[in-house]
């Protein structure tokens, strides 16, 4: 059995975060993002799963808490950025319709 190194754990967690980031960025339909509860629930579920993986890795002592928090914070920042862009786009679109 292969020993899990901090580098390997960090790489796996970053890959998972990037997979979620890609899921978020590939969502081109801003109407769905802003009005579709299913999309929000998928993202919430993915974020929760990643947070549990990070917590587990921290408990095992494989990664430092700061590293885990950085991974989650970066992903949350990207998600917030996407929602802000969608909100701004909708505001502009609604302004044009008036």
TrEMBL record:
Pfam families: DUF1507. InterPro entries: UPF0358, UPF0358_sf. This is Uncharacterized protein. It comes from Enterococcus italicus (strain DSM 15952 / CCUG 50447 / LMG 22039 / TP 1.5).
């Amino acid at each position: 059995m292969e020993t899990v190194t901090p580098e390997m754990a960090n790489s796996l967690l970053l890959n998972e975060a990037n997979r979620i980031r890609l899921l978020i960025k590939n969502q081109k339909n801003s109407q769905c993002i802003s009005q579709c509860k299913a999309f929000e629930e998928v993202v919430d579920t993915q974020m929760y799963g990643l947070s549990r993986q990070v917590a587990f890795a921290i408990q095992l002592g494989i990664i430092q808490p700061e590293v885990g928090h950085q991974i989650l914070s970066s992903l949350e920042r990207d998600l917030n950025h996407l929602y802000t862009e969608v909100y701004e786009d909708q505001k502009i679109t609604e302004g044009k319709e008036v």
